[in-house]
Amino acid sequence: MLRGLALGVAALLAAAAAEAPPAAVLRAWPAPEASQGVAVDGAAFFAIGNSEIARYERASGKRTVAWKGDAHEFPHLNSCAVIRGELVCAGSNYPATPMESRVEMFDPATLKHLRTIPLGRQGGSLTWVDWKDGGWWAGFANYDGRGGEPGRDHTATKLVRFDADWKPLETWTYPASVLERMAPRSASGGTFGADGLLYVTGHDRPELYILRAPRGGGVLEHLATVPIAVEGQAIALDRGAPGVLFGVRRASREVVAMRLPAGVTPAR
């Protein structure tokens, strides 16, 4: 069942939904834009707000460039990730309904807006995007109450795999063990590790959920829960430093770097 996983991951995940030791805080930087999430590359991190992004030097914490969009045109950026040389951001019209989703592309050096990929109505609100195995993977949130649509609640939260041209191929839902911890909100952040596992955060709890997507769609497998030092929202794995996770503290507007505990470190 665990064949192919990194040895450290396999040791921890032998029992489903294991409760892991907490992640250790490495550093925190003030970032006024950090209300929705964070993206990271080798030299910088990107603090993300509803309609704004700022790029900061990791070494000094100095803000080097900022972008602020029209709130009517860019009502709700949920997360961003540096993918194939671009800053790829998940956007939606939250809390408006019907839910409409779009992907916004930026130049990570200048934060110039490059283009918009409209996804329209996908049965949820786009909260995160990643690239894996030659295609796009995207998380779509659903909510109880504000921002939700009639007939769907947080249990309709899903993961969709698209091809390179955004044609949907497979869909997964979340297991009850994760959904009950996200209620009444949804999955706000998500990214794949080099181990092929999915790392997900909710909207409010200081927890990271590690999941596996079985082939062909279906229900995601909940492997472990890791206590973290941020209250959900969008996250980023540092691709150059295995086991280092970035997140945001909304209340204090900080970007936080954490080291995941031994046994849940993504392989290179």
Task: Give a quick precis of the structure.
The protein is mainly beta and 268 residues long. It has helices at 7-12, 176-182, and strands spanning 18-19, 24-30, 37-40, 44-48, 52-57, 63-68, 76-83, 86-92, 101-106, 113-120, 125-132, 135-141, 158-162, 168-173, 189-192, 198-201, 207-212, 218-219, 221-227, 236-237, 244-249, 254-259. The radius of gyration is 17 Å and the shape is globular.
Write the layout of secondary structure elements.
Blueprint: H1 7-12, E1 18-19, E2 24-30, E3 37-40, E4 44-48, E5 52-57, E6 63-68, E7 76-83, E8 86-92, E9 101-106, E10 113-120, E11 125-132, E12 135-141, E13 158-162, E14 168-173, H2 176-182, E15 189-192, E16 198-201, E17 207-212, E18 218-219, E19 221-227, E20 236-237, E21 244-249, E22 254-259
Parallel strand pairs: 1-19, 14-18
Antiparallel strand pairs: 2-22, 3-4, 4-5, 5-6, 7-8, 8-9, 9-10, 11-12, 12-13, 13-14, 15-16, 16-17, 17-19, 20-21, 21-22
